[in-house]
């Protein structure tokens, strides 16, 4: 309640800002705005009626329908100025009831809104919440958190509309009909979220945690909330890039807001850049500037004393220096962005385990000499020296899995079970990525056999040196609490090889065939906001 009271107090001091919305023009560009579309209007209907004026940009039609009122608002973005002019000329000289104007017109939006409200006899006065965010994001946040502020803002809106009407009619008082509409004025904020907060408030003190991993000291890990925030704002930037929009690095941490706990938005208006297959240098530089700036904004939340969670150092390094080959080709840029968006850094550990199990299953579905599956060829041809890394890191669990078959044979030999040795399958590792995938799958499947409490009193040593198991013994204590710990072990010591598997398959367009569905399922896995929003669940 104290937070709400403070929000109301802070917002009330800013209520005069509502008057400033009369000075908010629409974005510049080859666009028009349709102000009184029927509520049942669809994108398909608008496209059918307006495509005759010229080519419309892909995804260039947007329709907003307020919860109250009889009309919708539409925006059409054309490919050329000539198309905009043709649409304006036809509708302005016709008797059609559609209110149409150029987006970016010097005619002030809310002056027009006040007049149109009276023309249609509707008490609904709509404020676009996106305008509110751009004009004063702090007031926007206060409105979402303090519902008692609405009557105050309504009175400001009434004063504003009254001033517009009196100035327009050059009269000293309103007509009876105008006064009736004004008295029942319904202030609506179009597309207003239930909750709005800054990215800083969303992440502060809740983006990192220390987790226990078997045989390790406490390990730094990104929280589900941290992963959601990182992936969310990065996804927002990349989504805009792939439609040719960029901020050219001209935004700050304070310009980023979070709507309803899972929608991340940069409130500043992006610029349009040319995006074709051969990416212009200016566009590439603008995209890189955005990624560099978001790294600058997020480093504080994902590092402690220079340390970052697994995968994050490599992810930040790529964001700060997108490969040159990705900056000249739209196709390659899309692939690199797919790798960044679905980086293991922001995925639940179990999703990474399932991905590698699926890839292993895909490889095992074919005979060794079957070369028809390109994804398998890619993994077989790449040698990365991962075995040396396992041995150098010295993790007993990982080394135990690596040497499992060798130790198993020695154990059977010690117990005199020579015949059983001959029935064992031959499992040997090499430095290829395919072999590494097999190793990761074995760690996830068999690693818990190496994390049980050691108990040497489970066997009886006979006089001849052979041994046999005791008939009764206490079960060994399992020392890991979650299978996630096994995947974290791999991430800590072999994370660069995990990334290499995904990167090589994507860059060679090899996420196809038997593993395509596995990759799609992995991409769908992510952290989501929880019901109470105190944390995030998978």
Automatic annotation (TrEMBL):
Q: Does the keyword RNA-binding apply?
A: yes
Keywords for this entry?
RNA-binding
Return the protein name.
Answer: RRM domain-containing protein
Every RRM domain range: 30-105
Lineage of the species this protein comes from: Eukaryota, Viridiplantae, Streptophyta, Embryophyta, Tracheophyta
Q: Which SMART domains match?
A: RRM
**Gene Ontology CC annotations of this record:** cytosol; ribonucleoprotein complex
One GO MF term: mRNA binding
Natural source organism? Oryza glumipatula
Q: Does the keyword RNA-binding apply?
A: yes
Task: Give the signal peptide range.
Answer: none
Checking InterPro entries in the record gives: Nucleotide-bd_a/b_plait_sf, Ras_GTPase_bind_prot, RBD_domain_sf, RRM_dom
């Amino acid at each position: 309640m104290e937070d709400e009271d403070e929000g109301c107090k802070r917002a009330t001091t800013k209520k005069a800002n509502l008057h400033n919305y009369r000075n908010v023009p629409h974005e510049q560009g080859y666009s028009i705005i349709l102000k009184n579309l029927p509520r049942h209007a669809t994108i398909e209907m608008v496209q059918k009626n307006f495509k005759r004026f010229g080519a419309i940009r892909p995804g260039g039609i947007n329709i907003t329908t307020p919860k109250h009122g009889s009309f919708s608002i539409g925006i059409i973005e054309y490919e050329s100025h000539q198309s905009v002019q043709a649409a304006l000329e036809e509708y302005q000289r016709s008797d059609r009831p559609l209110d149409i104007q150029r987006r970016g017109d010097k005619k002030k939006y809310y002056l027009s809104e006040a007049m149109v409200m009276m023309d249609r006899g509707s008490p609904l006065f709509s404020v676009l919440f996106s305008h509110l965010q751009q004009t004063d994001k702090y007031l926007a946040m206060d409105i979402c958190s303090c519902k008692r502020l609405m009557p105050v803002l309504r009175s400001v809106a009434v004063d504003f509309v009254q001033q517009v009407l009196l100035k327009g009619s050059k009269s000293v008082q309103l007509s009876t009909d105008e006064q009736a509409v004004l008295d029942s004025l319904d202030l609506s904020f179009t597309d207003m979220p239930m909750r709005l907060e800054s990215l800083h408030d969303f992440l502060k003190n809740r983006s990192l945690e220390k987790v226990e991993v078997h045989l390790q000291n406490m390990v730094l890990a990104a929280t589900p909330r941290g992963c959601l925030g990182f992936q969310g704002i990065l996804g927002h930037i990349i989504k805009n890039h792939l439609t040719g929009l960029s901020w050219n690095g001209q935004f700050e941490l304070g310009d980023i807001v979070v709507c309803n706990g899972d929608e991340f938005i940069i409130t500043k208006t992006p610029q349009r850049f040319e995006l074709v297959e051969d990416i212009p240098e200016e566009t590439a530089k603008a995209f890189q500037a955005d990624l560099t700036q978001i790294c600058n904004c997020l480093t504080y939340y994902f590092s402690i004393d220079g340390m970052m969670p697994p995968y994050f150092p490599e992810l930040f390094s790529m964001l700060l220096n997108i490969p040159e080959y990705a900056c000249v080709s739209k196709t390659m840029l899309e692939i690199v962005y797919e790798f960044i968006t679905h980086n293991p850094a922001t995925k639940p550990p179990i999703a990474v385990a399932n991905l590698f199990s699926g890839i292993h299953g895909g490889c095992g579905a074919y005979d060794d000499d079957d070369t028809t599956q390109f994804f398998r060829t890619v993994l077989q041809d790449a040698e990365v020296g991962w075995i040396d890394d396992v041995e150098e890191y010295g993790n007993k669990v990982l080394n135990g899995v690596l040497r499992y078959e060798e130790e198993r044979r020695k154990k059977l030999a010690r117990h005199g079970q020579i015949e059983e040795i001959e029935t064992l399958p031959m499992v040997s590792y090499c430095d290829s990525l395919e072999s590494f995938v097999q190793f990761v799958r074995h760690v996830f499947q068999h690693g818990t056999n190496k994390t049980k409490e050691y108990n040497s009193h489970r066997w009886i040593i006979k006089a001849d040196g052979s041994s046999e198991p005791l008939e009764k013994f206490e079960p060994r204590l399992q020392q890991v609490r979650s299978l996630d710990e096994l995947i974290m072990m791999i991430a800590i010591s072999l994370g660069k090889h995990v990334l290499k598997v995904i990167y090589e398959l994507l860059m060679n367009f090899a996420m196809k065939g038997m593993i395509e569905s596995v990759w799609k399922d992995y991409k769908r896995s992510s952290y989501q906001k929880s019901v109470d929003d105190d944390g995030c669940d998978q």
